[in-house]
Amino acid sequence: MLIFVLKRLAFAVPTILLLIVFSFLLMHLAPGGPFTSERALAPEILANLEAKYGLDQPLYKQILIYLKGVVLHFDFGPSFTYKDRSVNEILGQGFPITLTYGSIAFVFAVLSGVSLGILAAIYHNSFFDYLAVGISIGAQVLPNFVMAPILVLVFTLLLGWLPGGGWEYDDPKYIIMPVVALATSFMASIARITRSSMLEVMNSDFIRTARAKGLPMRHIILHHAFKPAMLPVVSYLGPTFVSMITGSVVIDMFFSTGGMGLYFVNAALNRDYSVMMGITILVGVLTIIFSLLVDILYAWIDPKIRY
Amino acid sequence: MNTKSVLTTVFGASLLFAGLADAKMMNGEILAKEQVFTYRLLDDIKSFDPQINSSVQGSGLIRDMFEGLMNEDIQGGLIPGAATGYTLSDDKLTYTFTLRDAKWSNGDTVTANNFVYAWRRLVDPKTASEYAWYMELMGVKNAKKVVKGEVAPDQLGVRAVDDKTFEVILDNALPYFPSMTVHGSTFPVLQSVVEKHGEDWTKPGNMVGNGAYVLTEYRPGEKVVRERNPLYWDNENTIINKTIAVIINDENQALTRYLAGEVDKTDIPAGQYPRLSKKYPKQAYSYPRSCSYIYWFNIGEKGPKALKDVRVRKALSYAINREIVTDRILQGGQYQSYNFAHQKTAGFDLPEIDYAGWTQKQRDAKAVALLAEAGYGPNNPLALTLNYNTSDDHKKIAIAVSQFWKKTLGVKLTLANNEWKIHTTKQQSGDYEVSRYAWCGDYNEASTYLDLLTSYSGHNVSGYSSKEYDRLMAESKTMKDPSANYAKAEALLAEAMPFAPIYQYTGVVMLKENLRGWPVENLMQNWYSRALYMVEKK
Hints:
Helix content of chain A: over 70%
Number of strands of chain A: 0
Mean pLDDT of chain A: 90
Largest sheet of chain B: 7 strands, mixed
Low-confidence stretches of chain A: none
Radius of gyration of chain A: 24 Å
Radius of gyration of chain B: 26 Å
Oligomer: heterodimer
Shape of chain A: globular
Structural class of chain B: alpha+beta
Strand content of chain B: 15-25%
Helix content of chain B: 25-40%
Order of helices and strands of chain A: HHHHHHHHHHHH
Largest interface: A-B, 53 and 56 residues
Largest sheet of chain A: none
Low-confidence stretches of chain B: none
Number of helices of chain A: 12
Mean pLDDT of chain B: 92
Distance between the termini of chain B: 37 Å
């Protein structure tokens, strides 16, 4: 197991490097640049800007300079759009916010989705099952950009209970609506995957044996059915967690949280190369770490899996 | 009446008077106890640095935290700012500004050297400011050479005669030069602060300004807070204590939060003005805003053959039913446009444009005739592509125009929607046939629009080039009253039709009923927090 983990981590380094190079090249392929604007810049002004930000160098030199900055100084460069700030500052301020509401939303979605799915599977074809499936389809039809305005309409305008936006780490008033809006559609998917996975496990031979042996249902579910049923769910949760903690552009847009998701999308639209690269690297690293964690979790869940 | 009741009455009356005297009044209304103004921003601020900022939203903040030579009053007229006045030399090339006694927010005195430093900084290639061209536009001596790196920044035509006297030397006379000093990129900055903190000098706590407010809090993506600067020279007359800018990207969300009382000003989402002005007549406003919306025709080398024929261009422009665009699609009080410069620009007399006075039926008839003359019709249909950047409004207008052109002229118009950077890149490289565009004025004078169509303007993407037009615009800079030349220039444009004008903008906003002082008559929408105040809610 240890060798497996070390091998994976060793592979991570060239993977990230490849990611950087490819993203760099793709970014520069897109027409337009960070300084393309309605007021066509005079060539001399454009030249000054490109010199200041190193864009006048050949691409391979730009990549090398960038890599040197990242690896040696952990410096991801200045933002081309937000001229007073560096990428480190932007990520340092935005990522913790997204991480906070993303993690809380994740926990909420997992707990509610898994419970809903398990109960629906156990009480298969009962009213509760239909209700659960109905809720999960309904939640899927209410993506976050529909939920967000509805939540604000109800809780800010009509009831006046919650503020319509803003962010405070320690004040739940600001965290509730972003969490609910973000978690809803994920909860739906998790519930559906859990339910179908649980149904499959409940119909398998070893469960039938357990029931034949006369074991109580609760014992069967918790000690025999739960772990194998979680396998497909866990593989869904890995990338889901990463996407929830790195970028819900809609949540950031609608709740003015200052989180990272909006920067990601705006960086692409603004051709803000350094911010795009910084966030891409962050997402890449997180994806690698959490895929590894998911694989380790697999080994724990399923004794047949050994690395 | 006994002594006790007399004393009680006198005591009670004195309390009453004391209370009334305490309640501050302005223009006959009682001021609200809390003087906080909260408003909606569409996007996060790109920079707080006056010489670096290039967005309109940033300019609102910068006007509160710094002060330039001149300011604008509530109607948009020019009034003294950091300068009490100026004199102009006989050859009209040298402006000498006298600075008033004023302090920076850290106690330093505002001196002419602060302006010299800032203006040099704007054109210094090392600063790489996107607005360096503004100094070239102002015609300051050597501006272009400094930007190009041909001479050092200290060769720029600015000088501190003494601490209170700032001198500017122009390459050519410019009658509206003083009104250009209202723009944020010309605001002074303190050299010591910029050099001490470097890139971090605009952070709250580091930033030092000479404006009525200081930056106290900045939460990126969320809000910006600025509070009263007690050292501002006119602090006595400042009423608003705190201004909060809340960043709300989605305009419908912003409207919901406005109605919930979280912001005092927001922009009305497209198409909602009629409904909101009926429901909230005292809060919904529509007033002129200096921007002009057009469709460029590419008459340059890469443009389609059809558009090289002026009859085709005129036909296309005539066939657009602008009334439908402004009254049915936009519905925000926008102006139908048959020319380029915004008709509410100061000193600009809207010239008589022939097709502006016809009925749409007449325009359509003329359009069909012209197009037929040019050789296009049912047997030889005209096919074109219209580029526009992603936005619901642009899409609606594009669809409407494609219908006008199809029904009246049988034109087959393909709509091409591109994300903004791609759209702009194509436009600037001449890779388009018809392209949606809007130009907003930088200062309140018609040349901010009309200069665009000169052959030497870097923004002229259509390929339009006319010696007579160039001559008219060059001459206008030296005339006492350039209106005649402007009228002739617009007439030339209407004859050559390098673009189809569509509409001219209005600002469509919701303002809380108890807010006073919003400059609805200021075409440039240069607003200052210190000119606003809140009255007690009834």
